Amino acid sequence: MNIFFLTQNTTPIIGQVAWVLGKIMEAIFTVIDFIGIPNIGLAIILFTIVVNLLMMPLTIKQQKFSKLSAKMNPEIQAIQAKYKNKKDNESTMAQNQEIQAVYAKYGVSPTGSCLYLLIQMPILFALYRVIYAIPSYVTKIGDTFRVLADKIISVDNGSFLQNSGVESIASTVSMYGTNMTDGNLQNGIIDVLNKLSSSDMSIISDHYGLASLTYEGELILSNETTRGLLDTYNNFLGLNIGDSPWHLITEAFANGAWLVVVGALAIPVLSAVTQWVNVKLMPQQTSSDNKNDQASTMASSMKTMNMIMPIMSAWFCFTLPSGMGLYWVAGSVVRSIQQVIINRHIDKMDFDEIIQKNSAKSAKKLEKMKENQEKLNAYANMNTRNIQKKANISSGMTEEEKEEAMRKATEYYNSGAAKPGSMMAKANMVRQYNEKNNKSSKENTDKK
Questions:
Q1: How far is CA 159 from the centre of its chain?
Q2: Stated pTM of the model
Q3: Is the dihedral of CA 218, 224, 225, 231 positive or negative?
Q4: pLDDT tens sequence across 309-334
Q5: How far apart, in whole angstroms, are the C-alpha atoms of residue 241 and residue 87?
Q6: pLDDT at res. 225
Q7: How far is CA 70 from each of CA 147, 256, 285, 289, rounded to the nearest angstrom?
């Protein structure tokens, strides 16, 4: 049984992080399957909780950094105002030194926020990848799809799947079926099947005769009397999380299933609301009275983004598979609860004490750097004195002593007793080569 699919992400860093997160997702699904609840929706919620808990130390550090930055910014702005109209080299260097001293005082790195984002970004992209391609990371779900893919390949190598004439199927193949032509056919078919809506899957099932296929003795696709494995995996509170809310609402309107309409609408609405609550709980950057300074501009941009994000979240959740919407809702709820806990934890911190400790650390670090510099200077002076001493000794020798020293060095050089591989040994080799060359040249000249 092949555990790893070619459909797993192979992007450097993101691919490796996705592999680790995929193992967490598979472990969660294995546990809930063992206790008789093999449900992807539940697995996504538990997965979101686990990953956010693992990232909590990083989140606390980021919030602590934001709080310290908020306290530090007035001092930075005062220094920038002090050197506002001074563009000469000395003023620029003095400004940078004073700003660095403030950063050291608060124990904050100028690149701290960027560093946290750089750590978080691969994790966020990897999370999205795992949720979006669960069959690639959860072995049992992937093997269930593999049975369907093998049947399709045995019939026509996926020809009908690629040329069904149904616009929605063709669109899915175009977006997710790259591996069908450029990579592994089986994995490409799995990618497409995982993204097909329920109605499109019925069309494919009828053409290829998939309705009777089983995995571990259970039907894979549902019929009129029995719910199949895929519907068992994907059904969450009556909704198929493999379908988008838009598709669910369209079909529910046609069938008069009003509860499904309400449930499908709840996903994008909850996503927007929980995202808004999450934003409100986050520490907000305060803008200064000066509307032209950098801090004020950044605060204004963040405010605009905070207004747009809930709307974008609702739109994405309306058009993407409901599983993605469920992940975003669960993530926002978990982060909101987490943020309340973090806010209470940070509010209890004595930031004045933290600043004092950071100032002491900074002073010790500067003192150590000064000591190291003094040691380097002393070592340099010592080497200079040694060289001078040797020069003095050499200058104090008589002409006879100098000639004797030169004679002994020449004898040692000619003896070839130098250590193999040393500069003296290499010099001997060059000397011997030159002597041999000169001798050959002289013999040739004599013959002529």
A1: 38
A2: 0.67
A3: positive
A4: 888 888 888 887 888 888 888 888 88
A5: 59
A6: 83
A7: 57, 54, 7, 15
Asked whether the beta carbons of 358 and 107 are under 8 A apart, the reply is yes
User: Sign of dihedral through CA atoms 356, 360, 361, 363?
Assistant: positive
**Residue with structure tokens 């978080």?**
120
Choice among 36-50, 124-138, 198-212 with the minimum mean pLDDT = 124-138
Evaluate whether 271 touches 328 at the Cβ level (below 8 Å): yes
Q: Is the dihedral of CA 74, 80, 84, 86 positive or negative?
A: positive
CB-neighbour burial class of residue 78 (10 A; exposed 0-12, middle 13-18, buried 19+):
exposed
Q: Which of 249, 268, 262, 247 is nearest to 313 (CA)?
A: 268
- 266-289: per-residue pLDDT in tens? 888 988 888 888 877 776 555 545
281 Cβ contact list (under 8 Å, min separation 6): 336, 339, 340, 343
Please give the structure tokens belonging to residue 407: 């004679």
Return the pLDDT at 385: 57
Q: Which two tokens stand for residue 250?
A: 């369209």
**Residues contacting residue 215 through CB under 8 Å, at least 6 positions apart:** 143, 144, 147, 229
Distance CA 275, CA 313 (A): 8
Asked if residues 203 and 164 have their Cβ atoms less than 8 Å apart, the reply is yes
- Round to whole Å and give the CA distance between 272 and 249: 18
d(CA 301, CA 285): 10
Highest mean pLDDT among 146-150, 196-200, 238-242, 245-249: 146-150
Q: pLDDT at position 396, please?
A: 56
Per-residue pLDDT tens digits for 152-193 = 999 998 899 988 888 888 888 888 887 777 668 888 888 888
3-state secondary structure of 133: coil
- Residue 108: both structure tokens together: 């904050």
Alpha helices (H) along 320-398: 322-347, 351-395
For residue 57, give both structure tokens. 């130390």
- When pLDDT is averaged across residues 199-208 and rounded to a whole number, the result is 90
How far is the C-alpha of 307 from the C-alpha of 276, rounded, in Å? 8
* Closest listed residue to residue 7, CA positions, set 121, 138, 125, 140: 138
